[in-house]
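Hey,
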Amino acid sequence: MGETTAIILAAGKGTRMRSPLPKVLHTVCGFTLLECVVNAVREAGVSKIIVVVGDKGDIVRESLQGLPVTITEQREQLGTAHAVMCARPALTGGLDTVIVLNGDTPLIKPQTVRVLIDANSGSNADVTMLSAHLERPKGYGRVSRDAQGRVKGIVEESEASAEEVKINEINVGMYGFKGASLLAGLEAIVPHNKKGEYYLTDIISIFYRSDKRVESIAVTDTAEVLGINTQWELAEVNQIRRNEILCSLMDRGIIIADTTSAFIENCVEIGEGTKIYPFTYIGKNVVIGRRCRIGPFAYVQSGARVGDDAEVRNMAEFEKAGGFSQDYG
């Protein structure tokens, strides 16, 4: 199997977030949206990752320090296809498979990324796209199919007819391309939509009309592909990820007295026999030993280490002792 390159689109302004931060720098359980996507792609075995930045690009660049990614810039916000075009200078070497993902889908799993890559390579398709079926698909582009059930295009909601809006199969915005097909398809995209932008979704209808092979895979867990556009959606995704973390810990025998008031961020390790009491917050990258008691009303800082048989009680006690330490127990 040939080399895979990933392009992660992280240039959008995210105006509906009503925030001074770029959208992709908002966090889900301690990691930025963008970092979540980069980590999923890396864990899927993709070593060459290109991130396209735009709005407040300097801040986004800074957030990526230490991660093995190549950064390119979209100076003008001219659509998703234009963002991919901005990544072309970094597309060097063999281009067997190129996957394109949005930087605001923090719940995407490495396994799903791997399935997309393998499916596109195995079928020898020019593009394989991810889709999902939603009961309320508001805000998403709809998947249009012909009489034989083949994907013939993606219709943006703002461009959709009354009948097309009723379609509940949506475009996730994640694609696996044959490298040469992607480059050729980009050249054929023109800004014929109302906003005058170059939409990457147009490449699907371009391929269909030119008898290129277009395949699709429907994801089973639609939570994986939820994009973030508002603070409410961010809160919903944080809750989903938080529940995943709590479930994973409890499956390993960790006792959590009250799942509604325990907040545990990403990449936390907790040893056997430890109990987490109500109203406890544990930051990312924390390691807690065995048989510990954490809480109630405890706050464990990101990166802290708690030894075996330790007791971390409420925050006020640490403040009285002169502040927090990075090591407990």
